[in-house]
Write a structure and sequence with these properties.
Layout lengths: L1 E14 L2 E14 L3 E5 L6 H8 L7 E6 L2 E2 L5 H11 E5 L10 H11 L6 H10 L15 H14 L4 E5 L7 H17 L3 E6 L2 H4 L4 E6 L2 E4 L3
Parallel strand pairs: 3-8, 3-9, 6-7, 7-8
Antiparallel strand pairs: 1-2, 1-4, 4-5, 9-10
Helix pairs in contact: 3-5, 4-5, 5-6
């Protein structure tokens, strides 16, 4: 089943007297449970693509469907609620709330939505990511790798349709990065979670089930 789909996705903007085509007609289909990496050089459009797929920015043209819903047909308020309920984000800067402990950070999106926490599911994620002994720790008492694990747990806790990871190992050393990506792959398989990850690291990209390469706003390689 296709869980994420982009059709003729374009993002143009003016830079001085020039027209920059950050995305120039992208078509992608991603199945439920797939772990897909998107690779490309700096300025290739991969971050822009991730932002479009997650509804963090609106396209100049084209459509994005998440679990069959046309996200750009929604107004800003509707889209914000839809993102919170259906899309998990993992950023390289972790974006944890410093005054909340690990458990509170993980369940924060659920509580913001006014929903009941599925404690069994959350505890399972925390155990899988090796955070059971850290649930009462504040973020500043964790290593970078541990903070990124918390970010992964938070993204999975709401049972989103897809998880979008933006250079999730960008602030980690090579060994810790491989460890975190290994855990991300484990959670993807264990919870049948769809993950789309952008990275410039070819070695890390190979951990995914499938790799799509983007250059100059166009897909140049990858089974779309």
């Amino acid at each position: 089943m296709i869980i994420l789909k982009a059709e003729n996705l374009k993002k143009y903007y003016e830079k001085g007297i020039n027209m920059v085509k950050a995305l120039d007609g992208i078509d992608i289909e991603i199945k439920r449970g797939e772990f897909v990496s998107i690779v490309g050089t700096s300025g290739s459009g991969k971050s822009t693509l991730l932002h479009m797929l997650g509804g963090l920015d609106r396209a100049t043209n084209g459509k994005v469907y998440v679990d069959g819903k046309d996200i750009f047909s929604m107004n800003d308020d509707q889209l914000a609620v839809f993102r919170r309920r259906n899309i998990g984000f993992i950023f390289q800067n972790y974006n944890l709330v410093p005054i909340l402990n690990v458990y509170e950070n993980v369940i924060l999106p659920i509580e913001l939505d006014g929903n009941k926490v599925d404690e069994v599911h959350v505890d399972n994620i925390i155990k899988t990511l090796g955070l059971s002994e850290k649930i009462n720790n504040l973020p500043n008492n964790l290593s970078g790798g541990q903070q990124q694990r918390v970010a992964i747990a938070r993204a999975l806790a709401t049972k989103p349709a897809i998880v979008l990871a933006d250079e999730p190992t960008g602030n980690l050393d090579s060994r810790t990065g491989q460890e975190v990506l290994g855990l991300l792959k484990v959670t993807s398989e264990k919870f049948n979670q769809t993950i789309v990850m952008i990275t410039h690291n070819e070695e890390i990209a190979q951990l995914a089930d499938r790799t799509i390469r983007i250059e100059d706003g166009k897909i140049v390689r990858g089974d779309i």
